[in-house]
Amino acid sequence: MLCFLLNLVIKTIIMRSKVGFGNIFWPSLLAALIVSIIGVIIWLIAVFGIIGSFSSVVESTGVSAPKNAVLHMKLDKPIAERTSAQFNPGSLSFDNQIGLADILEALKMAEKDENIKGLYLELEGLQCNFVTAKEIRKAINRFEKSGKWTLAYNSGEVTTLKEYYISSAASKVYGFPASNFEMLGLASEVAFFKGTLDKLDLELQVIRGRDNDFKSAMEPFFLDKISDSSRLQLNTYIQTIWDDVIGDISKARNISTDKINTIADDMLAVNTEDAVKHNLMDGVKYRDEMMKMITSKLGKKADDKIAMVNFEKYSVKNVKRDLIAKGSNGNIALILAEGGISVDGNEMTSKDICKQVKAARENDNVKIVVLRINSGGGSAIASEQMWREIDLTNKKKKVIVSMGDVAASGGYYMAAPAYKIFAEPTTITGSIGVFGAIPYTADMFKNKLGMSFDYVSTNKHEALSSNRRLTPEEVAMVQDQIDDIYETFLSRVAAGRNMTKEQVNVIARGRVWAGKDAKKIGLVDELGGLEEAINYAAKTAGISKDDINVIYYPLRKEDKWEAIAEMIEESQNKAMIKTEKMPALFINALDQWKKVEAMSGIQMRLPYELTIK
Known about the structure:
globular, single chain, 22 helices
């Protein structure tokens, strides 16, 4: 508004005077800058004023369900391991995500909540991986076993396979009329950047540990298609996911897996009407028809109002309330380790995880530790630092590892010393291998920008730079370092899994395994999710099921940003405001470039960025 008024005044001055353009332009530019700065300051004052007001209002009092209520679980945003809200300066908005642990805990609460009679599950724009989807499915099944009803409604323009997979856990499944339906199988797409690097005159020399022929982490930067070894493990992995998914659907819908494969191969279910025809859904309904069905389930008349409890508020606020109330008095510590591994950064850092593991070890109330890992690896040094703290803790208090969507490379390294390892059948695990990537940039600077480089140094190998190629002796030195770290990796796994280094090397070599196969070869002890790992931890520590008292590390505190994010999201929903985003292809490519740029030292990282669709 200020800028608008300023422009109006300037235009009026120009129209009514004969002052030169230059005399108007520069003062106007300065005025516009001043107004912009003032606008930002006002915005910041408003935001922090809101924060201040929330400090006395937002307390974790939880959300109480009224009598005869329905829990409305709408899955339409990213699901991660931990609930969080982060400010996005690019859009001046908050990006928030709900944590899987909070979802599972809230459904357990709802099972015991006498006021909640049923679960209305609505899916549109779900963002998670198949392991997370499976954990949610199992939690829905447990909710049903408590004697309460469940209804699922796929309300989006497209019902994706992941959305249908979760919704199929409900006793009744419905879809919006004429929506598209995805039941065509699975595919994995890998983007390759070698042609891009060639056009830029950039080279990337990748050095892998000995026998690490499956360690294909950097293949997109020096190949233009999937290698034979990588293709083998990709095919094996996505087939395992598909078999697991249709196996669960088969049991839930009483349809043979052969029929589901036929539906996929012959494209027999491409919309919701087709899905009903082939017994994948129970019917197509508009939203008002779903509301009438819920009203009937509650034993009310058609015109009666029904009490719908927002699942996210019920989950986040009630779980947070309990965790804050517990403080550090829980008997089972749950540490959530998610993201790329680094010493200090934006995702999973050894600085944070080591601090949390040590705090759980030194907490006398904690009898056992559950470490939830969802990571494709990263820095070798950071992985070693976390391994050390986990190993020390396991010698004092047993550490039970629960693997999420992925616990590979550095993610598996940190799991190796644990007392027991749980994984879901489709968890990406293993990838026991090491690599280093060395860029050569001199040709790009010379051919594209006309730049050249020269050096003065005191010793022969001092001027190591990306602007000159490494000598054979320097390459050999890097290879020796990588081989040494690989040998250490083999030793860590051998000690933790009670194997010889030779036995580990046979199943290592950078190869990725699905959780089901990883159990067969000894990398995983039990198949199961977070709930199974916590129950096993309680049993191992001699804690009865009724006395389980889980606390998260870091200890949960009041987060005012989450409250603001919730308020902004609600106002956006009311105003139907949608923030435009970059296409997913560009976001994923940019993310990969950022990860390569951030790599420092030798890496223990997942062989590929896997996109399954």
